[in-house]
Amino acid sequence: MSNSHRTLIAGGDVLVGDPLRADVRRADILVEDGTIVAIGNDLAGTDAEIVPAEGRWVLPGFVDTHRHLWQTTMRALTANWNLNDYFCSIRSTHAGLHGADDVYAGQYAGALDALSAGVTTTIDHSHCINSPDHADEAVRGVKDAGIRALWCYGFYASPMDEPVFTTPEQRLADARRIRDTHFSSNDGLVRMGVALNELGFLPFHQTRAEIELADELDVRVTAHTQCVWNTERVSDVALLQRAGLLRAGQVHSHCNTCTDEELAVLRDAGCSVSSTPDTELQMGCGIPIYRRAAALGLTAGVGVDIVSNNSGDFFTPMRILMQHERGHALQPVLEARGLKAVGGDLPVTTRQILHAATLAGARALGLESVCGSIEIGKSADLLLLRNDGLHMRPVIDPIDSIVLQAGTRDIDRVLVAGRTVVRDGRLPGDVERSGTRLIEEAHERLAERVAARGGWKQPVPDGLWDEMWPVMLANLAADRAEV
C-alpha cells in the first residue's frame, strides 16, 4: 500500500507549458508527493485530496529574480528617495543597526509576503550578514516561511561601530560554514548562492575571491551590475570577462548602463539578467534593459528588489516593466514620424512578460527543470487565480486578462511543492499573526537605534561620488595587473 500523498486540482483553466505558447485549457492536475504526475481531463476518479479549481486559472507560481527580504523591516521607507539617499541611509547606516533577530523577522515576514502575492520562488540577495548569527537567522527565516528560494550569502560589510567580521576572508570562511551547516545538498527547497560586493567597493582581487568561492562551493552567483551612472564609465561586464570571471548561471541585476554589446557578452557566457523597474525608474539607475536583453536572446527575469521601497505584489513590476518598455520604444517613433508610423505588434507582449515572470525567472535561477511552468515531472509550485469576478469578465484572451486585469485580490490558493501555503487568498491565521508580530517588533527595535543616529534619512555628503569614484576606479584598476 502506497504512503504517497496525492492531490487533484480539479476543473481549472490550466496554463500548460511555456507561457509564451499561451496554452490555456480546462484540465485536472494530479500531484503526487509535491510533483505533477498527470495533466488531463479524465482524472476525476483518482484517489486523491480534491482541490476545486472551477472559475480559476491555474498558473505556475511567479519567480522573482531579485529581492532583498531583510529590508521588510523598513517597508516603503525609501518611497521618495534616490539611489544616493538609499546608499547613505540603508546600506551605510541602517543595515549596520540590524540585529540577527531583526534579520530573521525581515526574512520570514518578507518571504510570507511574497507567498501571499503568488511568488513561489525568489532569489534573496541577502546583504545584511553582519555576523555568523545574522547568517544563520537569515537562512532560518527564509526556510521557516516555506518559500522556494535561492538564498545568496551577501559579502557586503555594513558599516558598524564594532564589526564582528574584520576581514573579507572571515566572511568567506563563514560562507563555507553556512554551506556545510545549512545546505548539505543542492536540491532542497532553499538552495545557497552568493551575492557579490559591488565591483569597486573592494580591491578587484577580492571580487575574484568571492567568485572563486562560489566555484568552490558549487553555488550560483548574483550581483548588482552596472546600475550607477558617472561621467567616467566603467564596464563591470568587460572587467569580469577580461578576468575570466563570467560564469554560466550568474544573475546580473539592473545592468542599466550596459550596451547591447555588453548584454551579448553576458548572453554568450550563459548569464541572465533581472530588471527591477520600480527601483530603477525611481532612484536614478536608468532605463530598464529587459526589452533589449530579451531581443538579444539573453534570459531576462523580473524582480521586486527592495521592499523598503516596493510592494511585494508581483503584478506591479510586471505591468510597470511592460508598459514602460512599450512607451520607451514608441516615443522616438512618435517624435520622428507621428502616430501614422506606429504599426505591428507592440514591443513587449503580455505573453513575454508572463514568461519573464515565470519560466525565464526559473531558468535564471537554475530551476527550469523544477518550476516556472506547469509540466509533468515539475514541482507543483502553483498559483490559483480567480477569474469569475465581475472585474474579470468577460475574458477574451486569458493571458491578457491575467497580466492587465488580475491582481493579488484574485489569488485563491498558492502551493509550493504541492503544499498549500495560501488558502482563500490568505496565509494561515497563526502564520500571518506571527509574521506581523515579528516584523512590528523588529521595526520598533530598529526605529530606536535609527533615532539615536539622527533619523531615517541620513544626509548625503556633498561630493559623495567625487570621493567614492576615484577609490572605486583604483580598486578596479588592479584587474589590469592581475590579467
TrEMBL record:
A GO molecular-function annotation: hydrolase activity, acting on carbon-nitrogen (but not peptide) bonds
Gene3D superfamilies: Metal-dependent hydrolases (3.20.20.140), Urease, subunit C, domain 1 (2.30.40.10)
Domain Amidohydrolase-related: 57-421
Pfam families: Amidohydro_1
Record key words, sorted: Plasmid
Name of the protein described by the UniProt record: Amidohydrolase family protein
Source organism of this protein record: Rhodococcus opacus
